[in-house]
Amino acid sequence: xxxxxxxxxxxxxxxxxxxxxxxxxxxxxxxxxxxxxxxxxxxxxxxxxxxxxxxxxxxxxxxxxxxxxxxxxxxxxxxxxxxxxxxxxxxxxxxxxxxxxxxxxxxxxxxxxxxxxxxxxxxxxxxxxxxxxxxxxxxxxxxxxxxxxxxxx
Length: 153
Prior knowledge:
Elements (H helix, E strand, L loop, with lengths): L1 E7 L12 E11 L2 E7 L2 E7 L5 E2 L1 E5 L2 H8 L3 E15 L2 E9 L6 E7 L2 H6 L8 E2 L8 H4 L9
Antiparallel strand pairs: 1-5, 1-9, 1-10, 2-3, 2-7, 3-4, 4-6, 7-8, 8-9
């Protein structure tokens, strides 16, 4: 089970380059149910997600570079590219700060994953997090890949 809350940051933290980051490219073979391929640095994955806004099942399967390249040609919509910064929040949580590029340049999202729904509901975000868009489907990458109703940057 993946349980996460998602926010539009009001401002970015200083010195982002001091944090580990990953370059991500991902595309969608299907958005209902969600079937995604992802290249993260030099690793490749096929992911299936169940329905759900804050909580959903997620299965991630490693695939080869060749499989990724083959499936990449079959994706619908736009390929999403982003840099994901991993910022420590506390002893058990990490902020995944996504800064989008390409067609989605100007969009930035901060996500935090939780062990339980109760923990997610009780979360008090840092002040720089801004608007909570956990339940706004426009900010789910699978929706953003459609390119038709892009959120405002």
